[in-house]
Design brief:
single chain; mainly alpha; MetI-like fold; two-stranded antiparallel ribbon; 2 strands; globular
Length: about 325
Amino acid sequence: MTRTEWKQIGKGLAFCSPWLIGFMVFTLIPVVLSLYYSVCDYSLLQPPAYIGGANYHELLDDPIFRKSLTNTLLYAIIALPAGLMVSLGLALLLNVKVAGQTFYRTVIFLPSLVPTVASAMLWMWLFNAKLGLINTVLDWLPFRLLIAGINAILGLVHLPQIETPIGWLTNPAWALPALAFMSFWGVGHTVVIYLAGLQDVPSELLESAEIDGAGMTRRLWHVTLPMLSPVIFFNLIMAIIGTLQVFAIPYIMTGGGPARATYFFTMYLYDNAFRYLKMGYASAMAWIQLLIILALTAIAFWSSRKWVYYQGK
């Protein structure tokens, strides 16, 4: 290489150096150290001591680890598909040309801009067993009659009945579903992404399908959803990552209770790292979490070949 070419490379590296330094200091080095600490007994109070795979073996025998992982997967099973379907349904409704369309879109999107702590405090009041708005509404006569009817059916099949007022955040049976329901509060960003995808669906295809006699349902199923499948796939990947890392809302609202019913994986990881100062153990948990997310993401990418359609292919 000539001297001029070396100078050009040097200038390029100089321009990139702030990002490269930041990447190394805040990403690459912490990741490498985390991998090293995961095979060490490291409690911040003493130097790390290499112990091999002992942290990983201990995790397999840890009942709290298994409980937190089960809670996280159960939360993902409830919140992930429901959130994707609710946000897609809202996007389809908001894509219809009606008066006040901009207002409705704003109303749906605004909750996602509310700070996490403020959202948690609001929903703690809504879910309050005695003073919350949800139980106040359920105490109205029509809903009381509905609950009585449901309890009658549950009694016939010998299932536990619904006790009122419902302890949304204090009853282990209701706490996790309540948090999954609360996750719909933040679907605004997903709705906006769906709306952007809907704007990209060629109107010619919809018009051709309508001319061929396809009704609204068939146009949705055979034209809109296939053209929207890359956007659905993107939101699916982001939802997998987000639901498996759920932390702030349950940590504020329930602290993992009642009876660890909402004690999620990331909460246990955080407690091990910063409450119990077991950095080696927490690092092992972080790598297991990464492997789980990578595995589920790989499955999603593998399945995408069968249902995701890309224009031009």
